[in-house]
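User: I'm curious whether this sequence folds into something compact or stays loose and floppy. Could you predict its structure so I can see for myself?
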Amino acid sequence: MSSKEHTVTSDELDVNGHTNPGLPEHKPRLTDTYPEIERRFERQVAGWFVLSMLGTVLFIVSFIAIEPGESYDLMRLSNTLLGLGATLALLGIGVGAIVWAKNLMNDHEVTESRHDIHGSEEDRAIAVEIIKQAKEESGIARRPLIRNTLIAALALAPLPAVIVFRELGPLPGDKLFNTLWDQGVRLAIDTGGIPENPRLLRAEDVTIGSVVHVIPENIHDGDHALDEKAKAAVLLMKIDPDELNEDPERADWSYDGIVAYSKICTHVGCPVALYEHQTHHLLCPCHQSTFDVTDHCKVIFGPAKRPLPQLPITVDSEGYLVAQSDFPDPVGPTFWEINTR
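Assistant: Here's the prediction. I'll summarize afterward.
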């Protein structure tokens, strides 16, 4: 017991009548005691901020220098470097800020009384004083190495987002109306990648209930084959013709119950590939938009607003399935106002 008696005031009692123990005794850190350790942590913080800058530069260089559409290997390399660059850019700032706060900023605990919030001159003066105090406690004014590297890292960090959004480019206009599908283009089975010798599809090979992923046989004709494949991807299904509810204007777009629809969801562009044979519903796995294959793939559930565009098909003289034309409607998500033809 202390030789001095202490009278507990009402301010030191909580609502339950217990004595307020007060703040624990402050324990100095190594950085508070040894200047050389303080400088070491300062260099560590600056190093993390520099790492963030390098990550941002890696992202930008990878985005500009590597064309992912040329091959799957380049696409994999591009995604890896972009992910690594973005990770380092954000991780460097985050870890640097944590190391700075835990080892260099003032860690004294304080208590402040609550008071009514109002905009008096006195309150504004107090707010300014708090900001000045935070500036002093963080040490940002007297640690130019940390301050400068942090400013540089924060200045570079938004650039990847700016570049990525800028790369989205202008609105597509009529580009989504144009794919490699055209009159007489034969349907080939999609076996993955860009096939050297596409396997063509005969109408007699498609049985009721089957689902086939198809691409145009002339997939090599595009300057950017993967981009063209992404736009032209199609799901082909065969249904009992009596179950099809076809508009008279589109009655000749199918052949013997075989129908073909764009594989790209009209919500945000996910691949629609889940077919329920009993109900003849197509489901998008991303946001559960559901399309009725028997009724021109009209939306029956989910956030999609447009039916999947239908590819008009028929057969040629050799029995191969062929397109009658390109998609009459634009493929892909409706991020913008689209006027159908």
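Summary: The CA atoms of residues 64 and 180 lie 27 Å apart. The chain has two domains: 26-111+120-167, 175-323.
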